[in-house]
What we know:
By secondary structure, the chain is α+β, with helices and mostly antiparallel strands. It is 33% helix and 21% strand. The protein has helices at 8-15, 28-38, 42-47, and strands spanning 2-5, 20-23, 53-55, 58-60, 73-74. A hairpin with a 2-residue loop joins strand 3 and strand 4. The longest helix has 11 residues, at 28-38.
Amino acid sequence: MAQVVLSDELGRQFTGGLTHFELEAATVGQVVRQLDAKFPGLGDQLRSGAIAVAIDGEIFNDAMLEPVKPGSEVY
């Protein structure tokens, strides 16, 4: 499972303060869809392009198709 960490701001705004998740996903897009299913509206915010995503320390501005491996850290 990938370790997914949201910013404190996104956690406050969409998840009631939760910021750490473990998710099974093959791409960042799948991570976003899973988070949006649990927290409606979060996916729109993440897909807006205003937020960069880091996967295992590498930063991506347009990350929806980027692969996520088991054990990856996604911020």
